[in-house]
C-alpha cells in the first residue's frame, strides 16, 4: 500500500471499525505465484494482541497452496467514493477518498473445536438481523460437522499493519466545504458514509 504520512493512522479504533464493517475481505498468498480469495474475517483481541480468524473451502486454490512458513495479506477496503475535480475552485485531478487496512501475518490452522466456535460466531454476527436467524446452534451437529469437513479455518497473527484514511486532508477549508456540499447532493450510500466521515 502507498501510505503517505498525511493519510496514515495508527488508531486501533479506526482499524477495528474498518475490519468489523467490511469483513468480507481479500486473503492473498504467494506460492510460486500470487493467489487471492475473498473470505469472511473476524477480528479478535485488543490492540496489543489482536488476530484475525477466517475460513475457506479446502478445495480453494489458496488453501491448497498456502505455506504456513510465509506471510499472508488480509486486505480490507472501507468506505470509498469518487471525488470529482469539478468540485474544486481550481484546476486539479479527480481522485478517490477511501479507507483501507492491510494486515500481514503468519497463519495457524484452527482445530476442529476452534473452527466450530468460529463458524458459530460468524453466523451469530451476520444472522442476527434476519427474521428467523439460522445460527450454528440451531443446526444438527452431524450436519455442521459434515460441512466443516470441507473447510479449513485460519488464525492470522499480525506481523505488520497498515491503516490508511484518505479523506481529503490535503484540501483547504474552502475546497473541503465544496466536497462536502457535493457529496451531500448524492443519493449513493457510499457518498453519504464518506460525507459523515468528512464532517467529523
UniProtKB/TrEMBL annotation:
InterPro entries: Split_barrel_FMN-bd, TR_PAI2-type. Gene3D superfamilies: Electron Transport, Fmn-binding Protein, Chain A. Pfam families: FMN_bind_2. PANTHER family: PROTEASE SYNTHASE AND SPORULATION PROTEIN PAI 2 (PTHR35802). This is FMN-binding negative transcriptional regulator.
